[in-house]
């Protein structure tokens, strides 16, 4: 396999793993919030932690994309 194709496949796999990481982070944040809502009988944990998980996952995605784009230079 030519060197250019190996590099392209590697990038594809890295971007795919970033998507799964983002989904997993948001899912776990939502699950933790639901659990805390049930445990403490409150209604704000799920929303708060889910929102935090969305922002945290977006930060991770942006930082990883910047890192990948710098590796291309």
* Rg, alpha carbons: 17 Å
Q: Gap between N and C termini, in Å?
A: 22 Å
Q: Indicate the percent of residues in helices.
A: over 70%
Whole-number mean pLDDT:
88
Overall form: elongated
Structural class: mainly alpha
Low-confidence stretches: none
Number of strands: 0
N-to-C SSE string, H for helix and E for strand: HH
Q: Beta fraction of the residues?
A: under 5%
Q: Describe the main β-sheet briefly.
A: none
Question: Count of helical segments?
Answer: 2
Q: What would your notes on this structure say?
A:
With 73 residues, the protein is mainly α. The protein has helices at residues 3-40, 45-72. The mean pLDDT is 88.
Features:
2 helices, 0% strand, mainly alpha, 73 residues
Brief overview, please?
It contains 2 helices and no strands.
List the helices and strands and how they pair.
Elements: H1 3-40, H2 45-72
Helix pairs in contact: 1-2
């Amino acid at each position: 396999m030519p060197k250019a194709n190996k590099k392209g496949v590697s990038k594809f796999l890295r971007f795919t793993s970033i998507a799964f990481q983002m989904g997993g982070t948001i899912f776990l944040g939502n699950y933790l919030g639901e659990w805390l809502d049930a445990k403490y009988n409150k209604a704000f944990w799920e929303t708060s932690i889910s929102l935090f998980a969305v922002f945290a996952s977006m930060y991770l995605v942006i930082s990883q994309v910047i890192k990948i784009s710098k590796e291309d230079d």
